[in-house]
Amino acid sequence: MRDVAAAASVSVKTVSRVVHNYPFIRDEVRSRVQAEIRRLGFRPNGNAVGLRQTGRPAGSIGVLAADLADPFYAGMVSAIEQVSTARSFTTLVASSGEDAERERTLLATFVERRLDGLIVVSADRRHDHLRPDLDVGTHIVFADRPPQRLPVDCVLAAHADGARQAVEHLLGQGHRAIAFVGHSPAIHTARQRLRGFRAALTAAGLAPHTVRTDALDTEAAHRATAELLAAEDAPTALFADNPRLVGGMATAIAESAAPRTALVAFDDSELAGVLGVTVVAQDPRALGTQAADLLFSRLDGDHSRPRRIILPTTLVPRGSGEGRGVALRATRS
Amino acid sequence: MRDVAAAASVSVKTVSRVVHNYPFIRDEVRSRVQAEIRRLGFRPNGNAVGLRQTGRPAGSIGVLAADLADPFYAGMVSAIEQVSTARSFTTLVASSGEDAERERTLLATFVERRLDGLIVVSADRRHDHLRPDLDVGTHIVFADRPPQRLPVDCVLAAHADGARQAVEHLLGQGHRAIAFVGHSPAIHTARQRLRGFRAALTAAGLAPHTVRTDALDTEAAHRATAELLAAEDAPTALFADNPRLVGGMATAIAESAAPRTALVAFDDSELAGVLGVTVVAQDPRALGTQAADLLFSRLDGDHSRPRRIILPTTLVPRGSGEGRGVALRATRS
DNA sequence: CTGTTAGCGCGTTCAG
DNA sequence: CTGAACGCGCTAACAG
User: Its Gene Ontology molecular function terms (chains A, B) (predicted)?
Assistant: First the structure.
């Protein structure tokens, strides 16, 4: 900026005024400065601006996702970006890869860079360390997974309720031998789904046929499903804990001796649509939109008590949960 | 920091030293300062640090993706993050949503925040405006799409060559009536694929059966495919320009009177794997890794001429391109 | 081992 | 309409 000022024979302050479109500047001076700005390739230093302007928002929010490669979070982030862009805010995204330590590092970076607000999908089990940051004025909203002992807003889907919905749908079709295929419930949301699954069966006076929590990926799910269906006393219906298991489970069902075994999965996906797999869908974009709206209402000065928003899930029947088996289906209209 | 210094009765510089683990400090003083840091919830102000330490890297790179919701870019970003994390760098991601203006805004934000380097999947047709930023010392690597008139590194997949590979595979199976289904080639990579498609047919003394560039999404592709296959003179093989069309096209083929019509798609996807669709695969993670390696070599002081790395594509036969049609297949081992 | 001085690049305040 | 001086929070260089 000094250089530009010198080159245009004005003071730094005048350059600053030109950059900020301050109106009362002679056109001749303005254009001379602008020319030098272009010629020298000057860019205002965001660090210096952020340092000088304490209090005023910097115009950027941060999103910490657990896993960017997961289409669910990708959709959520995309919705957040949309809200944020509409407000002329920049959205910076980082992902922890489900690693709590990396999450803490990244959150620290966000806070240190003094972003105006954060939306967090946390892979951590504790959040006390964020308490000081709240006081510094960083607004935080938790999405998809609740905060532990931290008074902040959060937006969640009704996981337990969604699993219950799936089981009740299968019960309504007459199924009594219903198995759960998923992974070890270390993560809060997975725990909720398993809880809802069990609760719905208990309420009907039944017990789970099987609960398999060793299906970490689609191939493990394929094996688990094949084993279940090959057994003497095979289940007549399967509940897939998450959308990453659908491919393996659907294929295993199609290859088995019981290709009409019912399948309902938690969370929608392109694959489920094409294969005609019935799902209990959350709306990732709604999750993101709500979280962003909540964050911006805080940035706008809403100081009310932390809110917790629970979004309902929707059962989408496509055939696999209604006795028509798994197969290639026409695209949804 | 002033507050911490006052509370611990030391100078600010001593606090700074404690924060940075400067070794020569009395343990008693160190722990006293640390206690006050915790008590007051102090966080170093990254803006101030970045402002003072010019020259030294700030430890963060930026990634501008065209569309975060696209699994291809999600995988690429994930690979970049992995390289970056291994170097103890923070990765900040933003996405332009294929909007050139938003891309420019976001890049400006990155540059202003003085990130150490950028990896860009550009939706813009011009990049001259970045030239000044290069001089400021921001290192830029283009990924997936080449820069226009900007002397920077870039990593690309062999799009034209990949399309050629697909066509030759189909020619090898005896197909002569091969149709292209895709979208309008506004984007560089799509243009390259169409070019490779035409070139391969021309080289064999053939012309495309049809070139449809109106398939913007999976449903449009479903319609286009259905129309093609219902015609008197239907093609015997289809080339899908991108992985988002696979669901619609596979379903249309399965529903048609010619369910064994061959299908080869550009880019791999989970869906293609499960449906047994033959693809010409690029490796998004390799793209990210190479781009990140290139960027970090620049940060390490490599001043050689800009490089252009072209990554080869791989033909993955799964049945749909080899006369076995489209159907549910076992998961890949 | 610790404190003092100066200044990173910019915006704010107050004078011209 | 424009400029000079000051300070944001922190660290490099130099003293003690």
Answer: DNA binding
Instruction: Scan for tokens 């870039």, then name that residue.
Output: B154
How close B107 comes to chain A (CA, Å)? 10
Q: In terms of Cα–Cα distance, which of B318, B170, B190 is closest to B250?
A: B318
Instruction: Name the pairing type of β-strands B278-281 and B314-316.
Output: antiparallel
> Nearest chain A Cα to B254, which residue?
A328
Helix (H) or strand (E) holding B17: helix B12-19
Retrieve residue B62's tokens: 């930026």
C-alpha neighbours within 13 Å on the C-beta side of residue B318:
29
The integer distance in angstroms from the CA atom of B153 to the C1' atom of D8 is 37
Contact B327, B273 (CB under 8 A): no
Q: Under an 8 A CB cutoff, do B78 and A69 touch?
A: yes
User: Alpha-carbon distance A274 to A277, whole Å?
Assistant: 8
For residue A93, give Cα distances in angstroms to A80, A81, A122, A237, B66: 10, 9, 13, 39, 14
Token readout for B93 is 């991601």
Distance of alpha carbon B248 from alpha carbon B269, whole angstroms: 14
**Which nucleotide C1' is nearest B17 CA?**
D11
Q: Which residues of A touch B216 (CB under 8 A)?
A: none
CB contact A196 to B (< 8 Å) = no
* Strand residues in chain A grouped as ranges (E): 60-65, 90-95, 117-120, 139-143, 153-157, 178-181, 210-212, 237-240, 262-266, 278-281, 308-311, 314-316
Contacts of B53 (CB under 8 A, 6+ apart): none
**Residue B134, both tokens:** 């290069």
DSSP secondary structure string for all residues of B218-266:
HHHHHHHHHHHHHSTT--SEEEESSGGGHHHHHHHHHHSS-TT-EEEEE
Burial class from Cβ neighbours inside 10 Å (0-12, 13-18, 19+) for residue B128 reads exposed
Q: Which nucleotide is nearest to A11 (CA to C1')?
A: D3
Report how far residue A102's alpha carbon sits from residue A123's, in angstroms, rounded to the nearest whole number: 9
Q: How far apart are CA A272 and CA A328, in angstroms?
A: 10
Taking residue A298's Cβ as centre, other Cβ atoms within 10 Å add up to: 20
Q: How far apart are CA A46 and CA B213, in angstroms?
A: 43
Answer whether B71 touches A (CB < 8 Å): yes
CB contact burial A191-216 (16+ within 10 A = b; e otherwise): ebbbebbbebbeeeebebbbbbbebe
Cβ atoms of A95 and A68 closer than 8 Å: yes
